[in-house]
Amino acid sequence: MTRLLVLQQLFNLSDEQMEFQLIDRMSFQRFAGLKHSGRVPDRNTIWVFRERLVQATSSIRSLPRCSASCSSMDSGPARGRSSTQHRSRTHSAQHGR
């Protein structure tokens, strides 16, 4: 079903147009993985799937962030190379490797 949403976005199709194109175009059916199924989702099914996906995404975004607890658990440098990587590169450069 997520592939259907990708096709809709790429071709700027409404749910009704998406249903028609899935019936009409074998390439759409192949991309969506519906080639041998013989069953194409109708416009209502596509709409319900998109709405559920939006609801699930919004509920995930509303979860509190754990940045304070995650930063206290950090055991190494947040950016750049670790000290062992820096030492090994320096050692290699000094010895011509």
Average of per-residue pLDDT values: 77
Give me the Rg, rounded. 25 Å
- Biggest β-sheet, characterized? none
Total strands: the figure is 0
| Strand fraction | under 5%
Termini gap: 52 Å
Number of H- or I-type helical stretches: 6
Structural class: mainly alpha
Apparent shape: elongated
Helix content: 55-70%
Order of helices and strands: HHHHHH
**Contiguous uncertain segments of 5+ residues:** none
Describe the structure concisely for a colleague.
66% of the residues lie in helices and 0% in strands. It has a domain at 2-60. The chain is mostly helical and 97 residues long.
Describe the protein in words:
- The protein is mainly alpha-helical and 97 residues long.
- It has a domain at 2-60.
- It has 6 helices and no strands.
- The protein has helices spanning 2-11, 15-24, 26-32, 43-61, 67-72, 83-94.
- Helix 2 (15-24) crosses helix 4 (43-61).
- The radius of gyration is 25 Å and the shape is elongated.
Task: Please supply descriptive tags for the structure shown above.
97 residues; mainly alpha; 6 helices; 66% helix; elongated
What layout of secondary structure does this protein have?
Layout: H1 2-11, H2 15-24, H3 26-32, H4 43-61, H5 67-72, H6 83-94
Helix pairs in contact: 2-3, 2-4
